[in-house]
């Protein structure tokens, strides 16, 4: 597993890793690990390949974004509401919108769920 590197990740408590060898142009399995080296906290496996060709076999990007939106929404309806959470919420909704637009375009071209461009 290779460590995910990004300037905005702190790695104070957790690290994110992804598989080294993957198909379909992107990693599909990720692990969130404790920095102290005592194993992983959770594993996430994303969809591998087009659904119509490979069936449903993992979570979609939209699924993970929806989870974070739900979590932030609950924080915003509590004493932990803040400007930063609200901005993150709005940007995640925007990301979901753009992914939905992509799917709609693929549906209109009758290529949704396939490897056809």
Features:
single chain, 117 residues, alpha+beta, 4-stranded antiparallel beta sheet, 4 strands, 39% helix, 16% strand
What does this protein look like?
The protein has 117 residues and is an alpha+beta fold. Helix content is 39%, strand content 16%. The protein has 2 domains: 1-59, no CATH class; 60-108. Strands 1-2-3-4 form a 4-stranded antiparallel beta sheet, with no helix packed on it. A hairpin with a 5-residue loop joins β3 and β4 (40-45). The protein contains 3 helices and 4 strands, in the order ββββααα. The radius of gyration is 17 Å and the shape is flat. 2% of the residues are buried. The longest helix has 26 residues, at 83-108. The mean pLDDT is 95. Pfam families: Acb2_Tad1_hairpin. Residues 45-103 form the Acb2/Tad1 hairpin domain. This is Acb2/Tad1 hairpin domain-containing protein. InterPro entries: Acb2/Tad1_hairpin. Keywords: Nucleotide-binding.
Distance between the termini: 30 Å
Radius of gyration: 17 Å
* Assembly state (oligomeric): single chain
Q: Spatial order of the strands in the main sheet? A: 1-2-3-4
**N to C succession of SSEs:** EEEEHHH
Strand count:
4
The tally of domains stands at 2
How much helix is in the residues? 25-40%
List low-pLDDT spans: none
Major sheet details: 4 strands, antiparallel
Organism: Pullulanibacillus pueri
Keywords: Nucleotide-binding
Protein name: Acb2/Tad1 hairpin domain-containing protein
InterPro entries: Acb2/Tad1_hairpin (IPR056098)
